Target: AIR9-like A9 domain-containing protein
Amino acid sequence: MLSLEDIGFFLSVSSEPIRSDWARGPIVLSEQIGPIIPGPPTCQSLEFLGTMIEGQRLSSVATYSGGERGNCSYEWFRVKSNGIRERLSTEEFLDLNFEDVERQIELVYSHVCKDAMRGSPKTIVSDMIAPGEW
Model:
């Protein structure tokens, strides 16, 4: 499997045929293919980091492929009981407050590569935010 470290390099394959009686044939080497370029930016998984309690800070962790990470975008929303979304922040984190209690938080994350290529947004929604302890 190719990785970020392989971008810009060439690929070739060598093969040594071996029969069922273990007799070996000559090693064959393919032509070089490349250079390897990044695939499209893709967010494979997205999870919240933090506790869903008033007064806590939420952030996220994303697993992605498709080149070197650039300025990824974050959009945090408060989801009200009627389904209306209220945009809260575009930072990498969100500090939960009293207005978030008994609401859900939604994060829309878009992976952006260093070359400014943007992937499709990925969305996650939290459980209900609990009140903090006084």
